[in-house]
């Protein structure tokens, strides 16, 4: 049924001197979208033919003709805009992939609970505070869950709080080799609640989605993280 309708439509266009496959008698290879598209020239020919064959006692009203032209213009504009947006999206995907690949071998600041020490054994992290806190506490443990150090920062205002640990345990001894587990909590109005903390983690590799999805960073100790999760690059 669809083929019959399409054939009838093509026959009608042919009588008007319009071909959806190129110039008359000169077929050319086209995509499915191109083959089914009605170009500006074809539209104007159809409009002219409509005017020539209209009922002289009931001619097409000017506003109806203007509406047809406006509709065609809008559709053509939307089609062109969609094409442009697809091209922009493709370029952005390529730029994001290149950016992600450039992170391999570097450290990035992301939300997480596994922290890697610096070469001197110290550790840096960032605790974002959306609101002021009456007290801020950070605890660092080894991979087995044994508490190594508790650091109290007291009352803090809203903003990013820099966390610095010298690599020493609560009794002053050197902590075992990392990585470490790090957690934080804030006290507000007498209630202490857990708070997310940002840690530095090495980027070991990048996964590029076969379906055109956004690239994903694979981080040591934290697993996959989207590119948008990165707050800072070391």
From TrEMBL:
Example of a GO biological process term: bacterial-type flagellum organization
Annotated protein name in UniProt: Basal-body rod modification protein FlgD
Job description of the protein: Required for flagellar hook formation. May act as a scaffolding protein.
Transport as UniProt keyword: no
UniProt-listed Gene3D superfamilies: 2.30.30.910, 2.60.40.4070
Family the UniProt entry places it in: Belongs to the FlgD family.
Matches recorded under InterPro entries: FlgD, FlgD/Vpr_Ig-like, FLgD_Tudor
Superkingdom, taxonomy of origin: Bacteria
Span of domain FlgD/Vpr Ig-like: 127-183
Keyword annotations from UniProtKB, A to Z: Bacterial flagellum biogenesis, Cell projection, Cilium, Flagellum
